[in-house]
Amino acid sequence: MSQPYAGAVTRTLAFALDVALLHAIIFLAGAGVALIVGAFGDVSIDVDPLSISLAAGGDLLALGAYLAWFWTLTGQTPGMRALGIEVQTMTSERLKLRRAVLRLFGMLLAAAPLFAGFLLILVTDRRQGLQDLIARTVVRYV
Amino acid sequence: MIRPSPTTSSTTNPAVRSEAGSANSVLDAVLGGVSAGVSLANRMTGGVADDALDRVLASRRLQDLTDRVLESPFYDHLVDRLLETDALWRLVDQIAKSPEVMEAVTAGSASLGRDVADEVRGRGIAADDTVERIARRVIRRPRG
Lengths: 142, 144
Prior knowledge:
The complex is a heterodimer of chains A (142) and B (144). With 142 residues, chain A is mostly helical. Chain A is 63% helix and 7% strand.
């Protein structure tokens, strides 16, 4: 291993795993709810813009809660665990909720300019993206 | 139970259950008798019975006899009857549910998962370095 900080590819793979896992859970939960509701009446899904926006917002909230919860709980989401990486503060401590939420906002900011904020991982010495620079965190191999 | 397609449940039939019990008793008695007989003959003949048994087991005629039995319709019938017994499937169930088998299956799955994760991690780390090298070359900013 050339250095202790996790690079862009590993972090992207971990994130993709987390997104897949979360959506598998959401899908199964949704199917369960639809089955229960369907037993008592018709299930209709509205596809108007408001419903789609609400669903997308809920999805983002769920993803944020999932990430923040795991970062503060163990420093690793299931995807990060699978790829063997961990998020820590600059002093190698576990993230508190406030810092985790700050990092989430950092991720939104990093994603806004066509994900350019994440490209900083490729060129900063500690492989920090915009979210890491804002929340003062690093992602290490474990 | 693992049994594929139970047509009748012989355990619920008292007559069949009693028949199976009797067969087991007979088998136990026969095997016990043979073992006791060989042991007694050994003691009386100073190991000659053991040698004779070894010669019989190694003989060509016994092999031929075994082949004939295995190729006969009797053997197929025996296997069919065995597959119909509940006892066999109970035994298979017991083995499948035994802690040793479960442990072996779990350990095998965990080991496969670990191997895959290790491989992905290794390739991920290599890809991290490669991508970073390319990016730094593009912006002409070597690692400090």
